[in-house]
Structures are given as structure tokens and as C-alpha cells.
Amino acid sequence: MAHGNRERTSSEVRRVAQQIDLLIHNIGTLVTMKGKSGPRQGREMSEAASLQQGAVAIRGGIIAAIGTEADVRAEIGGAAIAAAYDAEGLLVTPGLVDPHTHLVHGGSRENELSLKLQGASYLDILAQGGGILSTVRATRRASEEELFHKAKRSLDTMLQFGVTTAEAKSGYGLTLEDEIKQLRVTQKLNEAHPVQLVSTFMGAHMVPEEYKGRADEYVQLVIQVMLPEVKRQGLAEFCDVFCEQGVFTVDQSQRVLEAAKALGFAVKIHADEIEPMGGAELAGELGCISAEHLLAASDTGLEAMQRAGVIAVCLPATSFNLRLKHHAHARRMIELGLAVAVSTDYNPGSSPTENIQLAMTLACLNLGMTPEEVLTAVTINAAHAIGRGDRVGSLEIGKQADIVIFNAPNLAYLPYHFGINHVHTVIKQGKIVVSQGRLLQ
Length: 441
What we know:
Shape: globular
Helix content: 25-40%
Strand content: 15-25%
Largest sheet: 9 strands, mixed
CATH class of the largest domain: Alpha Beta
């Protein structure tokens, strides 16, 4: 017993000796999302884990202490505090995570707005050579430098809205050279920008125009040439495929994802966005880390996902922008015990917005999710959907100090008061990168 007392005394001495780089204090409501090692499933998504009058102590970009301000100050004892930040009684949450974006691309598709207003569907525009194929042409024309600067502007915007970690898919090159170009841009942005990026290879995003009518040949190109080279260069962690009518069949999607798994990629799938193709069932069969869109997914498919632990990534801004009559059945997913994440699906066509707060509001209004469920969906569940749940997505000792201070009195105010940016301050790995809503250079 005496030995145990000596260990505690020694630990306390070490804490006093170590400087605290930043102490965030006078927090009104602190939402931590801590309490579970994996994603929150079903009813667990309502457990936001919050406390009043909180504080967070940061050392070396990592959370050193967290809790009520009284407890945190007792925990850090007499440690020197290099800087203190007054949260002014505001709402503090983990840094937001956007788990599904098409960040790097050329061009824009505002010309398609009038077509949508005239009643043209997403698949109609695609069949006319627009949609993804239009962006492919623009991306192929763009230089790596042009793509970098365009994507950086979007990443700056995402950061100002509170996103501190995001996924970025390729899929607008559709040749080996142009897919590699996109992935290299993602890699460079990850090195140069505060937002941490997780890279996904999506060469099977669309059958390119030069392979029209020869989808199987293109699938073989993806499997035999693109995937091995992307793996060799270490440019992506995940592989995704668009399983949809007029794009890739379930069989073609399965071949791509099985080849990716054999090379060591973790796999994702764009599943059942427009038509019930059986993509959700395939996600369950293959044990994908996530399945995305899911507007037309069957209960059978959702149940297969739940059994396999596949995270459902819902994209409410996309169904809103496409003016669809129905949205992803998030309430049914939660009833079935799935872990649900929410994302912007930022891309130049179906969801041209970097505003994750808008997606959060739409998740409440159109998907029927509660504010607590939505925050879970854009923090800890989103982090697990891109393999980062062990380091971001919740505020816990030992995790990265990725933190957002919102100009809001409580959590419900975020989706309730929509159309504005609520961010006051963003802290990434212990450093203030947005202050008073403005980027710090």
C-alpha cells in the first residue's frame, strides 16, 4: 500500500513539473463524446456526454486533463500554464469530422442547376455527358497546382465551419495518371493544411467516356493497374466504388472491392443512392468500414450492415440539393442499431457545399435525427467511419486536442439557428487556427 502511495505522489510531482501549453476554461457546456471505444450504435447515439462549467488542459497537442474546471485545475496542480483561453461560457465540442468528400476536382457545374429546375434527374444529366463526366473533363485539364489551390480554398472554408478532419476521395481522373494527380494533391494538402485528410481511391467512380459500353474492361484496368500502383505509392488508405444503376453493378463493385481488400485497402461503398441495387447487402458481406448514401437501401441490406458493424454515412445535403422526394432512413437505421455518421458529400455537382453545419441542420429536419444524434454523427461516428476514432472525434485524455468553440448557448441551438456559421474558435492539435470565426495564418 505504501508503494502505491509513493507512485501517486511521484505522478503528481511529474504533472506539476510539466507545463500546460493551453488551458481552455470558463466553458458553458462541454460535450465530450467520451465513454465508448467504438462508434455509438442505435440509441447510444443520443448519449452526448456533456457537463457544465468545464475546462480542457492541453499539452503537446494532446488532451492532458478534461472535466469540470475545478477538477481540471486540481488535476494539473501547480503546473505552469503557458496560455489560458476564456471560452466565455460558450458551447465546446470535439472538432467536427467530415467522412465523405470529393475535395479535389476541377471546374464547377452550376450550369446544371437550370436542368434540375426543369426536372432533369441526376441520372438524366449523367446520361447526357454531364455530371461526374463533366467534372472528369475539367479535372483532367487542370494542373496539379491548380487543383491544389482550388481544394485549399474549400479546405479553408471547411475549417472555418469547424471541420478538423476530413476524408478526400479521388474519382474525377479515371486514368491512372489523373487519379494519381488527385491523390498527390490530397497528400500535399494533408502536409500543408491544419485539417487532417484521410485519402480514398475511387477510380471506380464512373465509367469514363473512352470506355463507354466497355465497363468490364475499365473495371479490369482499375483492378490490374490502378489499385496496385496507388498501393505501391502509398497514396490512399481506402478504396470506394459507386454501385448504382448506369454506373457499376453489384458484381463489378464486388470485384473491385475484393481486389482492394487483397492489396490491404480498407473498403467503402457508395450504395443504393438512387436505386435499390443491393449495395448495402454487399457492404455487409464484405465488411466495409462504411456504406454511403443509402437512400434506397432495403431493411435486409441495413440489417446485414448492422451485423457486420458497417457504419452508415448519410448525406442529407445531397438529397436536398437533388430535390429528391425521400431521404436516407436514418431513424430506421438507428432503430436497427446501426452507427450513423453524417457528411457534407462536398463535390462540384450533387452537393456543392463545404458547410457541415448545414448538413447537420438537414439531418435534423429531413432525416429526423436529434441534435445529440447529429453531433455524434459528425464527431465520434464520423471519425470511426474513416478509421480515426482512436485519435479524434471525442475529447478524452490522450486524444488529439481538436476542439471547436461555438457561439451557441447549447447543443440544440446549432441546428436550430441555421444558415449562419456558429464557429467562434477552432483548435487543431492544441493550436488555435480559427479565432472569432476567422482563419489565422
